[in-house]
C-alpha cells in the first residue's frame, strides 16, 4: 500500500479497506496526478517563453535602470553605473512624474470599487432566468470586444468622434453641446438628492464622477461580469432551495449565501481590475513614460520610472490581496 492510500485510510478512521476500495482510491489519486501533469503541460509554453525570453529582458531592464548609456562612434554603446540617480531623478527632479503617479493611484482607488460593484450587480441581474438572457449578456460584453486590438485603435482615430467633440454650438442658438452632451448629471443635482441625508461633499463628488464616467465603467466591466457569472452558476441550486424552504428572503440569501460563495471571484476581479487599469493604453503614467523614453537619456530614466511604477503595482496588489484574503470564503478549503 503506497503513502497516498495510507493517508486516505487514516482519514477514514483507520478502518481496514477492502482491495476494491483501495483500487478506487488509487484510481482517484492517479486521476489527480494526471490532472496535475496536464496543468503543467498547458502552462509549459508560458514557462518556456518566460524563462527564455522575458526573464533576460527583465534582467537587462533592471541593469539599464542603474546605468547611463554612452553612445560610441561605431554604433555601439557602453554602460556607466550611476546607482540610484535615475530613480532620484524620477521621484525628485522630474516635474510631472510624481504628480501623474499620485493622480493615477488616486483614480485607481476610486475606480476599482465602482467597476467591481457594477460588474457584480449586472452579473446578478444577468444570472436571473429571463427571456433573451444570452442576448443581454452579449450586449454587455460587446464593449470588451470593441476596446481591444485594432478596434481600439480605430476608436481613438475616429474622425467622426473628433468632429463631434469640436462642435460647440447647435444651429444658431449658440448652445454649448460639449458640456450638455458629456455631462449626465451635475454636482448640483447630486447635492439636491443628498440634501436631506447630511452627506459630505466628498461622497457627492465621488458619485458625480462615477456617473459621468459610466461609459468607462461599463467598458471595463465585461470580463469581470463573465467571471462573476461563472462564480454564480457554480453555486448549487440546492443551497438556494434550502434557504427558500427555511423562509430566507432574497436579501438574506444574497448576503449570507451568494456573497460569501463568490468572495473568491471578488478578489480575482479586484486584482484583474488593478492590473488592467495600470496597463491600459489610456493610463497617464504609461503614456508619460513612453514620452520620456524618446528624449535624451530618456531610455534609462524611463526604465527607472517603469520599475517604480511596477513596484507600486506590486505593493497595491499585496495590500489588496492581504486585506481581502482575510474575508474570502473557500468552500472546499478543508477537503
The main sheet comes to: 2 strands, antiparallel
Cα-atom Rg, whole angstroms? 27 Å
- CATH superfamily of the domain at 92-131 and 220-335, by name, is MetI-like
Could you tell me the CATH topology label of the domain at 92-131 and 220-335. MetI-like fold
Strand fraction equals under 5%
Shape by Cα distribution: globular
State the helical fraction: over 70%
Alpha carbon gap, first and last residue: 22 Å
Q: What structural class is derived from the secondary structure elements?
A: mainly alpha
Strand order of the largest sheet: 1-2
Estimate the mean pLDDT confidence: 76
Q: Note poorly predicted spans.
A: 163-182
CATH architecture of the domain at 92-131 and 220-335: Orthogonal Bundle
The first-level CATH class of the domain at 92-131 and 220-335 is given as Mainly Alpha
Multimerization status: single chain
> Could you tell me the number of beta strands?
2
Number of helices: 17
